[in-house]
Automatic annotation (TrEMBL):
Organism from which the protein derives: Rhodococcus wratislaviensis NBRC 100605
Keyword annotations of the record: Methyltransferase, S-adenosyl-L-methionine, Transferase
Name of the protein in question: Methyltransferase domain-containing protein
Record keyword S-adenosyl-L-methionine present: yes
InterPro entries in alphabetical order: Methyltransf_25, SAM-dependent_MTases_sf
Alphabetized GO MF terms: methyltransferase activity
Domain Methyltransferase residue range list: 49-143
Domain of life where this protein originates: Bacteria
GO biological process terms, semicolon-separated: methylation
Length: 220
């Protein structure tokens, strides 16, 4: 989806007419990723919450339905319009969404007690990661929590897909700005076609489970 120094056409992707995808995007599963939902269920999230690279925003919409105050930012106007429509349809009052470049956004200094990155990190060009990490650290309140769900190396054939990471690569990048509490193996659940999905385990809903890392960190 992205390569170094190259930004994917995200609005084309969310409209469903990009060369890489036809139809719905595979990571839009209609609910929070199960790994993230597990953290929410354990009470790990505190308001205010930033949904970084929110896409269709099922994570923050789920949180808003539970009374959390959330902000979602995404580069794609199409994705943000879908999220805003969902807010109205569901009668939610504590969720707001804006079009923004997640690697350079401003205006939220020190606001968020929780920042969640659900399948964003691997979508960034590698040379934009440091700018992104700096931007979200600037938006974090003292003691904030940070969670990243990202594809692990080996999730895709070499040279295909986004920019997956090793655990050491993830640790080195994030540790510049955050104190890392844990990096553990995880899964990203995706709606893949039969041929693509054949290589992977599936969950109870028939979604492919691709190897990932789940990082937990905090600000001192």
């Amino acid at each position: 989806m992205t390569e170094d120094n190259q930004v994917a056409p995200w609005d084309d992707i969310y409209r469903g007419d990009a060369d890489e995808f036809t139809g719905p995007v595979p990571w839009n599963i209609g609910e929070p990723q199960p790994e993230i939902a597990g953290l929410i269920g354990e009470g790990k999230f505190r308001s205010d919450v930033l949904d970084a690279g929110c896409g269709h925003a099922e994570t923050s919409l789920h949180l808003a339905a539970q009374g959390y105050t959330v902000v979602g930012l995404d580069l794609s106007p199409t994705a943000i319009a879908v999220a805003q429509a969902a807010v109205a349809d569901r009668g939610l009052t504590t969720a707001t969404y804006q079009v923004a470049d997640i690697s350079s956004f401003t205006g939220f200094d020190g606001r968020f007690s929780t920042i969640v990155d659900s399948t964003l990190f691997h979508s960034l060009p590698v040379d934009r990661r440091r700018d992104y990490l700096h931007a979200v650290a600037r938006a974090a309140a003292p003691g904030a929590s940070y969670y990243i769900l990202v594809f692990a190396k080996g999730a895709f054939p070499e040279g295909e897909g986004p920019n997956p990471v090793t655990d050491d690569e993830l640790r080195e990048a994030v540790a510049e700005y955050w104190t890392i509490d844990e990096i553990r193996p995880a899964f990203i659940h995706a709606l893949l076609g039969p041929e693509q999905a054949a290589s992977w385990e599936h969950d109870e809903k028939g979604r492919a489970m691709l190897p990932a890392w789940l990082l937990s960190a905090h600000r001192d």
